[in-house]
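Hi there, hope your week has been kind to you so far. For a while now I've been wondering how a particular protein folds. I'm sending you its amino acid sequence along with the backbone structure tokens. Could you read through the record and tell me how the tokens relate to the sequence? Take your time with it, there's no hurry, and the full record follows here.
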Amino acid sequence: MKPQTLIGALIVTSCTAQAQTTDSWTGRDKGLHLVAGAAVAGLALSQGATRAQATALGTVVGVLKEAHDSGGRGQVSARDAVVTALGAAALAYSPVPLTVWREQRRTYLGVSFTF
């Protein structure tokens, strides 16, 4: 097992052990986590990262955010970390060109086409 994998597993295990048990998979913040993961992956891809690297970066950001929350600065949610990772993977491995953008204080995730 690679050291990075072991460290990631330990962080996730730590977050999961402290995670709230009432967190819903459909909580209102899950969309934000999905878009945040996609945004991180999109940024990584735009800077030349591979799909795997972009997904890993989105996953790490999600885990680190939950680790930050575990210090009493929020509610820890393993599901939030998972949804953030799914957002990163969805953007990185999508067969269609996806993009994330902000307009008038709203964040959008959409399909981009060039005509």
In short: The helical segments are 3-18, 30-46, 51-73, 78-93.
